[in-house]
Amino acid sequence: MIGPILALATATMPGPPLPPSPVAAAPVISAALTDTTVQVKSDFRGARIVLYGAVFDSAARPSDVVVLVRGPEQPVRLTRKQKVAGLWLNSRPVVFRGAPGFYRAASNRPLDDIATFGTLRRLGAGVDHLPINAPAEQHIETRYGVRDVVVSSLGPDYYDWRRAVVRLKEKAGLYHEDGQGVRFVDRGLFRAEIALPTGAPTGVYQAEILLFQNGKPVSSRTRTLTVEKVGLERALYVWAHSRPWSYGLAAMAFALAAGWAASAAFRRD
After folding, report:
1. Among the listed ranges 56-65, 116-125, 174-183, 254-263, which one has the minimum average pLDDT value?
2. Is 84 left (phi over 0), alpha (psi -120 to 50) or beta?
3. Nearest to 44 by CA among 199, 206, 174, 176
4. Stated pTM of the model
């Protein structure tokens, strides 16, 4: 009886624990710009910056990539023509602050197909989701003898004014959204181009690269791009902004001298 009992005990003894199943690592995105500084000279005709990146995901899950490039903020002053007593006059000016001077949204497919409205709005992804707002309070500024009123409670007209801001920026080539601006060139490798127009503002730009899976952002990277004036243009720019009075007097003196020289050259006896 001892033999069968030992055999039964041996058969029912638990074996060594099985190793845990491997857990897929969290996906990660990485990217770099071919140029981090753009120099603006008198012959500047725009520039194209290439962004390269890679998606690292051991599970090889379907992924989307969104690239958002924002330039330095610039106030936007708008007026609207309105008819008063048979005359077309400019309305009270509205100044929007917080609007980026430059904005590009590029993705491998349309943004609406990548994430929900709420997610895009929270991230400010896409021209329609940019936080372009008038200040919370009203205040009055006086510039060159003209009084600008910053309006905060525009009511239903706010959307018309905001569309006007976007329309003007798009016409100048400063705002753009491209649902095919990111292209996958190989497994996990992608490429995007950032086109800077002639009128691109100087300053520090932020390029945010987002990785989406199942409609949610799972990884991000931020890269910095600097657009700066160089040479004589930079010297004049710094002079005009640091000492506007002396710059204005010098410009006036130069204009008078140029006018006098032209009249002397073409003077008839």
Report:
1. 254-263
2. beta
3. 199
4. 0.71
